[in-house]
């Protein structure tokens, strides 16, 4: 029985999880500086302790309804090909330890590109948590574009 820890975050009232090993840090929301000619889901860049860090809006990437940024918004920072990339989420305030038995495979209804970054469906009591691999959310072309941002 393998147990793993997951950072649980919210988007539009739904809960998502990502393996804690993939998360560099979680920081308060900082307004990003817009960068021209980038995909619409890239909010821009922030200066994170001297490093220029691209910021991705998961709501835009997932075609979810966007609302105003609140004090509870957070940025989850991951390391993507030796570059920090941030993902804006509504809230990230919990770490859960889950056994692999609590995570089912993604449902068959998911096909194509969505299936590669949804690694499973977590079940904790009555809650459903969509388990993601943030590294696979971006296509290879999008990753390349982010690598080239300054």
From TrEMBL:
What's a Pfam family this protein contains?
CheW
Name the Gene3D superfamilies on file: CheA-289, Domain 4, SH3 Domains
Chief subcellular location: cytoplasm
One of the GO BP terms on file? chemotaxis
Q: Which domain of life is it from?
A: Bacteria
**One annotated Gene Ontology cellular component of this protein:** cytosol
**Subcellular localization, per the record?**
Cytoplasm
> Which SUPFAM superfamilies has this protein been placed in?
CheW-like
Keywords of the record: Chemotaxis, Cytoplasm
Q: Which InterPro entries does this chain map to?
A: CheW (IPR039315), CheW-like_dom_sf (IPR036061), CheW-lke_dom (IPR002545)
PANTHER family referenced in this protein's UniProt entry, alphabetically: CHEMOTAXIS PROTEIN CHEW (PTHR22617:SF23), CHEMOTAXIS SENSOR HISTIDINE KINASE-RELATED (PTHR22617)
Q: What is this protein called?
A: Chemotaxis protein CheW
């Amino acid at each position: 029985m393998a147990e793993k820890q997951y950072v649980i975050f919210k988007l539009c009232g739904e809960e998502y999880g990502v393996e804690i090993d993939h998360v560099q840090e979680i920081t308060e929301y900082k307004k990003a500086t817009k960068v021209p000619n980038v995909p619409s889901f890239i909010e821009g860049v922030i200066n994170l302790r001297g490093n220029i860090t691209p910021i991705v809006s998961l709501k835009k990437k997932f075609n979810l309804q966007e609302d105003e940024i609140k004090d509870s918004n957070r940025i989850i920072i991951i390391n993507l090909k030796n570059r920090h990339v941030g993902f804006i989420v509504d809230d990230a305030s919990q770490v859960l330890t889950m056994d692999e038995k609590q995570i089912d495979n993604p449902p068959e209804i998911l096909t194509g590109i969505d299936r590669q970054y949804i690694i499973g469906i977590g079940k904790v009591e009555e809650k459903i948590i969509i388990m993601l691999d943030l590294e696979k959310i971006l296509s290879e072309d999008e990753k390349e574009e982010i690598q080239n941002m300054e």
